[in-house]
Amino acid sequence: MKGKFITVEGTEGVGKTTNIQCIASWLDERGIAYISTREPGGTALGEKIRGLLLDKENTGMAASAELLLMFAARAQHLEEKIIPALEVGTWVLCDRFTDATYAYQGFGRGLNLEHIKRLEALVQGDLHPDFTLILDIDPELGMSRVRARGELDRFESEALEFFDRVRAGYRERASDNPSRYCLVDASSPLAVVQEHIVAALNAFVGGAE
Ligand code: TMP
């Protein structure tokens, strides 16, 4: 792939939007062409699937149905948007990707990680993000920010223990593969968080050149 694939992850209320903006500014400053997108979603079909996934009326959704919907949205996103961009050298900045599936459906819901791995291979082949920022925060702090924003969606309505497991999942993935992941303490002052992110991106392009 000619373009680079950057993803941003973390539990709820971790400050993804603000820090995605920091990465976007870094790309703009370097004149790098990119698209900014999100999961679940990113395409017309994917956004419809997102609606199903986040709708808290869907209380009885089976964990395996949730998993398959995540990968259905992802398959469409890859074919319609991500792969065509990367092929022409456009970078892709994506708010969540498959690390969220391992963290939420694997560690959070307790689904078998080997099953997730098989779906990942089916849907993505060899395509994986080149750089993943994981914003790490105590879920209690993150959830207090989310609650202040207003109504909760189906995931945000989960208990704190669910997000403790999700967080542990992200941390485990980051420590298993430190070259791809940058784990940042998102409870630090914003300027410190963003300094860390910019340093990691500079190291990433330094290493990628
Ligand atoms: P967002 O609110 O950060 O945009 O993400 C929507 C929710 O979807 C969030 O609570 C995390 C969840 N999610 C998963 O559970 N698995 C996934 O694979 C993805 C991409 C998101």
Concise summary:
The chain has 209 residues and is α/β, with parallel strands linked by helices. The chain is 57% helix and 13% strand. It has a single domain (5-208), classed as Rossmann fold.
Can you characterise this structure?
The protein is 57% helix and 13% strand. It is α/β, with parallel strands linked by helices. It has a single domain, classed as Rossmann fold. The mean pLDDT is 96. Strands 2-3-1-4-5 form a 5-stranded parallel β-sheet, with helices on both faces. Residues 12, 38-40, 70, 95-96, 100-101, 104-105, 155 line the site of thymidine-5'-phosphate (TMP).
Q: Biggest sheet, in brief?
A: 5 strands, parallel
Instruction: Give the CATH topology.
Output: Rossmann fold
Q: Are there runs of 5+ residues with pLDDT below 50, and where? A: none
The oligomeric status of these chains comes to single chain
The count of β-strands is: 5
Q: How many structural domains?
A: 1
Output the strand order for the largest sheet.
2-3-1-4-5
The helix-and-strand class reads alpha/beta
Summary tags:
alpha/beta, binds thymidine-5'-phosphate, five-stranded parallel β-sheet, 5 strands, 57% helix, 209 residues, 13% strand
